[in-house]
Design brief:
The structure holds 2 protein chains of 2 kinds. In chain A, 44% of the residues lie in helices and 24% in strands. By secondary structure, chain A is of the alpha+beta class. In chain A, strands 4, 5, 6, 8, 11 and 13 form a 6-stranded antiparallel β-sheet that branches. Chain A has a 5-stranded mixed β-sheet with strand order 3-7-12-9-10, with no helix packed on it. A two-stranded antiparallel ribbon of chain A has the order 1-2. The chains are: A alpha+beta, B alpha+beta. At the A-B interface, α1, α3, α4, α7 and β2 of A face α2, α4, α25 and α29 of B.
């Protein structure tokens, strides 16, 4: 092993110890350590090493969410294609397996399987081909990978002149499929919501507004919804999941509740 | 068949870019990424334009990697809200290697800019100073029509008839006016092209080997990219400055420098630093008696200019704003009474999270490392590019330490005149280990700001829009990043020292440079990923509070312009329903020390805050006094600070919260709100610490 490789491995070891001390043991932290070791042993273009370092580092920032595991998976997939070192490729594969075991991301099994098969091959063209197949399989079998716990966003409410106002525009899409409006301690007479929906190729329902057990549809185009005696939290949800050539979105413009 | 194969071999780069354009277009649609109609078309268009101007040449290997990164990120875009930003940026960044390769062709620098033009014209919001300059142009061409008049509320100074902006620069944009916004922006693209061509010629003349690539990097990297094609006078000033340097170095005629010095002041008074630097460089160039004659001539010219301004232009350029007692007072107040602010501003230009170059353009570290090499390599170039940049920077910082950055304008726009000297220096350290990562990270950030231009704008409130978008609301990273507005001196100084160490390593060609950059990055992410235990009150997300308002709630900076003690916004609890509800940190133990920094008006009634957690509750009643007026403010004007929230002394309240009965959340509510202070009534929270 070269002098540089030894240095890199020591560097990776120090980072791994730091990760375990600060973030404890979990499948995710084990994945980070395997990923770090894989990066240390990576043989390939310098740009690839830089990329794996950056995505690995950024994944640490997202310890509590699903962004971190996703970044590690992305890094591992690309490193498996571009690393000439078999040891490094296996480590990246193991890292991807640990991410799979965390269960943070739904639907990455086909991709992880493709990473396993690809990491065995010596020629990078074969590895690229197998992973491209893996990506296709992923899209066909499980669709786009998604977070186990879909994200939601709580809109900022303002209490003014006997009204509760939500003035901050927001987007509800597949990445953030729910927007929540809350008005703690207020019994509102009615709420008026202005939303517009689009990004689809038909005129069917894009999402709905939910207040307790009442549901109101949101169709493509401009929608103004008035709900009498709403029960909070009121949520705006996307009803469509991922489909090729479809970009469903609900633009929340504003809302006003009068009590 | 042979011909086709030959064409494919010779023009593989062009075919690759065209095919990638289609690939990106379809991947965008297959994965359902947002903004398919605009960004989903503009990014492929950039690739298509690159293909059309690429000519003969191979496939840039880096473009393939970036295309692969785009593909994988777009697959995962639904997992995190920051991923679509990264995916789009990688999609655009894929053309950058091609643009750098293009630079070596004939007209390569201009051709390399073409793919970015649609993105600049269509995506960047027409805001800030842009409509204002456009309005002045309109007034010069067609007074009475109102294409840009709806923006007239943005007029600068209140001095009747005297605009904050001068008319020379808007006058130069008249040819673009008939085409409205794209035309006016198009003129600025021409100014930028002129500046870049001149810069490349200066670099070529001084013998920099990679002069073409450096020039392309000049507009791809921040600060060059931040206002590329936007209606700001920076690129025009750079063109004038560089044309003078280029012409003088070729002809040795001082008239070029003197003319440029005058024109720069006419473009915008801010560029007087460049003028002074040019003239000082000219004086240094001259020897013996000629130097004396030149100095005397310059004094006469400045006097004549000032008299011309006073009698002919009614003081529009200098006297209205600077020909008064306040101006003279500022000249001695800044170094004597505001030294810390001036030093802080100088440091913030490098490390501040909102406007510092370290975070938006880390390549600047390598540029700074190469400055001494530039002095040895070509002393004449070093003086001609360095002195004007230095004078410009010092005057900028000295004159307005609180607002030098020009926020909320695009980040880095004020530092554009430093670009040539930093690029020339970068050219000398380009091959050193670790420099490439700084350049590619900078290019990545630049690509993010091209595809999501809204992230260029910061509001001097201590939070950076790009970091917030990528890391989310719950990340601890903001505590570790240096901010002038939310000043934490050890963090701020620590980053300056770190930046200094990295610069030194690059300068000495140390093998530790790369390791240091990586270690700093990893350590930042490692600690930034820990659970958040300190909240800036105004950053508390809406799910952790009931109602409450941000004070002041306007996004404009004008309202906070005269906040002397801190320009941070605050969280206002002004109604009984208002509350902050923070989650109890994991592994908190039996008790928790809660520190609340807040201020409230003295109203006579019992005002304060109540902390509750499960069955337990405690409260503190206190009200703030008004701070003492800073001495320099009293020297400027005999005045007292108005009784407003921003001028109140802060109260620090500490609570030990027992966690036996409480495991979920801690609630902070206001007490004793009597409404006697009208619109300012309430408790103003600044910071909450959970230890």
């Amino acid at each position: 092993m070269s002098h540089t490789s030894t240095n890199k491995l020591i560097f990776a070891l120090v980072i791994s110890i730091g990760v375990f001390i600060l973030h404890g043991f979990s499948f995710f932290t084990i994945a980070i350590c395997l990923y770090t070791a894989g990066t240390a042993l990576l043989k390939g273009p310098r740009a690839v090493t830089y990329f794996t370092v950056i995505s690995g580092g950024l994944s640490l920032l997202f310890v509590s969410g699903t962004g971190g595991p996703a970044l590690l998976t992305i890094g591992a997939v690309l490193a498996v294609v571009l690393s000439d070192s078999a040891a490094s490729r296996y480590l990246f594969f193991l890292s991807a397996v640990c991410i799979l075991l965390t269960g943070a991301i739904d639907g990455i099994l086909p991709l992880t399987a493709a990473v396993l098969v690809a990491s065995v091959f010596k020629r990078d063209k074969w590895r690229a081909l197998i992973l491209a197949g893996g990506v296709s399989a992923l899209l066909i079998i499980s669709g786009l990978p998604s977070s186990k716990e879909p994200g939601s966003f709580v809109s900022e409410e303002i209490l003014r002149d006997g009204k509760v106002l939500w003035t901050e525009p927001a987007q509800v899409n597949i990445s953030m499929p729910e927007l929540i409006l809350q008005a703690p301690g207020i019994d509102a007479a009615f709420i008026t919501l202005k939303v517009s929906a689009g990004g689809v190729r038909d005129s069917n329902l894009v999402g709905y507004v939910n207040s307790a057990d009442r549901t109101f549809p949101v169709y493509p185009g401009e929608n103004t919804l008035i709900i009498e005696e709403p029960e909070f939290p009121v949520s705006i949800r996307l009803s469509r999941s991922w489909k090729p050539f479809s970009h469903p979105v609900i633009h929340f413009e504003s809302a006003e509740a009068i009590f | 068949m042979i011909t086709l194969r030959r064409i494919a071999a010779e023009r593989s780069g062009m075919i690759f870019h065209a095919a990638s354009s289609m690939l990106i277009f379809f991947i965008w649609r297959i994965t359902g990424m947002p903004s398919p109609g605009l960004l989903g078309r503009l990014v492929p268009l950039c690739w298509l334009i690159t293909a059309s101007v690429y000519g003969k040449g191979g496939i840039p290997r880096l473009s393939i990697y970036l295309l692969a990164i785009f593909t994988v990120f777009s697959l995962f875009w639904t997992v995190d809200t920051g991923f679509e930003v990264i995916a789009a940026a990688c999609g655009l960044m894929g053309i950058f290697p091609g643009l750098l390769a293009l630079s070596s062709r004939k007209f390569g620098i201009m051709l390399a800019m073409l793919p970015l033009i649609p993105m600049i014209l269509l995506l960047v919001p027409f805001t800030g100073d842009e409509p204002h300059y456009a309005f002045i142009t309109e007034r010069l061409v067609n007074p009475g029509t109102g294409r840009f008049s709806e923006y007239s509320s943005q007029l600068g100074d209140t001095v009747a008839g005297i605009s904050h902006h001068q008319s020379f620069y808007p006058a130069l944009m008249i040819p673009g006016y008939p085409l409205s916004e794209p035309g006016i922006r198009g003129m600025n693209i021409l100014f930028a092209m002129a500046a870049l061509v001149l810069m490349s010629k200066i670099f070529r003349d001084s013998g920099l080997k990679n002069w073409k690539q450096l020039t392309v990097l000049g507009f791809l990297l921040i600060p060059g990219s931040s206002i590329l094609g936007l209606v700001f006078p920076g690129w025009l000033a750079l063109a004038v400055f560089l044309s003078a340097v280029y012409a003088y170095r070729r002809s040795k005629k001082s008239i070029w420098i003197i003319s440029a010095a005058i024109i720069l002041v006419l473009i915008k008074f801010r560029f007087i630093g460049l003028s002074i630097g040019l003239l000082v460089a000219l004086i240094i160039e001259f020897k013996g008696r000629r130097r004396l004659i030149l100095s005397a001539t310059l004094v006469c010219l400045v006097t004549a200019g000032l008299l011309f301004d006073l009698f002919i232009l009614n003081g529009r350029i200098f006297w209205v704003r600077y020909g008064n007692m306040s101006f003279i007072k500022v000249l001695f107040l800044q170094p004597l009474f505001r030294t810390p602010e001036v030093l802080l501003a100088a440091g913030s230009s490098l490390v501040d999270i909102e406007c510092g170059m370290l975070w938006k353009a880390p390549w600047v570290l390598a540029g700074l490392a190469g400055i001494q090499l530039l002095r040895k390599f070509d002393r004449n170039l070093f003086i001609w590019l360095g002195l004007p940049a230095l004078f410009y920077f010092l005057i900028l910082i000295f004159w307005n330490p609180a607002e030098w950055s020009g926020m909320p304008g695009p980040v880095g726009r004020m530092l554009l005149p430093l670009l040539p000297v930093l690029l020339a220096s970068l050219g000398l350290v380009l091959k050193r280990k670790g420099v490439q990562i700084l350049i590619w990270v900078s290019l990545g950030i630049s690509a993010v700001l091209f595809t999501h231009p809204i992230l260029r704008f910061n509001f001097a409130d201590g939070s950076d829009s790009l970091v917030s978008r990528i890391s989310g609301q719950f990340s601890r990273i903001t505590e570790l990043l240096p901010s002038t507005v939310r000043l934490d001196l050890p963090i701020f100084l620590g980053w300056i020292i770190l930046a200094g160490i990295i610069i030194m390593f690059f300068k000495r060609r140390s093998r530790f440079a790369e390791y240091t950059v990586t270690s700093v990055f990893i350590a930042l992410c490692l600690f930034g990923g820990l659970e958040k235990k300190s909240w800036e009150a105004e950053d508390i997300p809406s799910e952790y509070r009931n109602y409450c308002t941000i004070y002041p709630d306007e996004t404009g900076l004008e309202l906070r312009k005269f906040w002397f003690f801190s320009r941070e916004k605050m969280l206002r609890l002004s109604q009984v329903e208002d509350a902050v509800i923070l989650p109890v940190p994991e592994n908190a133990g039996d008790s928790l020390r809660l520190t609340v920094f807040h201020s409230s008006f003295s109203s006579g009634a019992d005002t304060g805050i109540e902390i509750s957690c499960g069955e337990w509750c405690d409260s503190v009643y206190a009200s703030s006094e008004v701070m003492e007026t800073p001495r320099w403010v009293l020297i400027m004007r005999d005045t007292r600070l108005p009784v407003m929230p921003e001028n109140l002394k802060e109260i620090r309240s500490e609570f030990i919260v027992p966690l036996n009965d409480c495991t979920e959340s801690i609630r902070i509510t206001p007490l004793g709100l009597d409404g006697r202070h009208g619109r300012f009534n309430g408790i103003y929270l600044d910071r909450i610490l959970l230890r």
